[in-house]
Write a structure and sequence with these properties.
Layout: H1 7-10, H2 14-25, H3 32-46, H4 49-61, H5 66-71, H6 83-96, H7 98-101, H8 105-140
Amino acid sequence: MKARMSVNKEEPRIYPVMMEANKLLTGFEIDRKTQELIRIRASQINGCGYCINLHTKDAMKLGETAQRIFALSAWWETPFFSAEEQIILKLTEEITMISEHGVSEDVFQNGLRLLGEQKMAQLIFIVCTINSWNRIAIVTHIVAEVD
């Protein structure tokens, strides 16, 4: 696959805003490893190879296990994720695929119950941010680097 264009080169005001959003995420209550799981799962759903590659490496640098990363695409079929992580992953999926069925009331209410309103707001923003990055990368064919 060949890159189509560079959004950053053609419109240099976009990346600083996206990077500022990324900086904001570091101060959230949702820990960094969980944020990487969110990014990986959304990127799997969207088919963003660049972001899957990037965030898998980042998760492993933070101490995430290969076993959990390998199982992420079928997390509900494993015992590897806590109740909080499960609702976070379910919300990640429903928000990422929002055009299909929206976010169900049951999943939303379970999220509020387990996370509280502030963490729920943070989760929504994390998912929206990675979905934006995925779309930039997919549309422009940003290519993952081979190690």
